[in-house]
Amino acid sequence: QEELVESGGGLVQAGESLKLSCTGSGHTIPYYSVGWFRQAPGKEREFVAAISRFGDVPDYSDFVKDRFVISRDRAKKTLWLLMTNLKPDDTAVYYCNTDPPSPDSWGQGTQVTVVS
Asked: Of 15, 75, 83, 98, which is least packed with CB atoms within 10 Å of its CB?
């Protein structure tokens, strides 16, 4: 399984923005539907956003729609998640993976903490 590496998390104030990155060395980001997922303390991991294999059509969960933007550069094998107007409820570890996710491809994630 290809390793995907997330980065870009941090501690921010409510209302601020962050841009997460996910990089891979193989075929996953250029050739598959890929997405972002998150897991908050004590909660199940949940879908955040995905971008389709063909046409780069984005899909968002209701709780991030109009605030987050998913994009990728297939040549650079990089996936991004631009997060704006962050809220304390967005605090979680964020992961990238294929969509639907491959159980064997979860990485370490990147921590996003939003304080009010």
From this structure: 75
